[in-house]
Known about the structure:
alpha+beta, 5 strands, 3 helices
Amino acid sequence: xxxxxxxxxxxxATWVLPFDADxxxxxxxxxxxxxxxxxxxTVGVITIQAWDYLTRAVMSDDPNPYIRFDHRRIQPQPYPKxxxxxxxxxxxxxxxx
Length: 97
């Protein structure tokens, strides 16, 4: 993941979201660009609550995954996801202040 985080920084990313390809992220009240832009510069890592979404028994042909996944489990996943600022040398013990 470190190599991919460095590549993201080199490509101009400001945040790295290490999510799987089948995971979706959204904010219910604002765009992700606005959300991540509102986080103070002193914050380097955030946690994101994750929920499992399921499809219907018969899969929809709709290409939009937000339409296909129409059922959420009652309980969130036991461990949150994280997002961290893109930096040239990511390290889990970096001092962000």
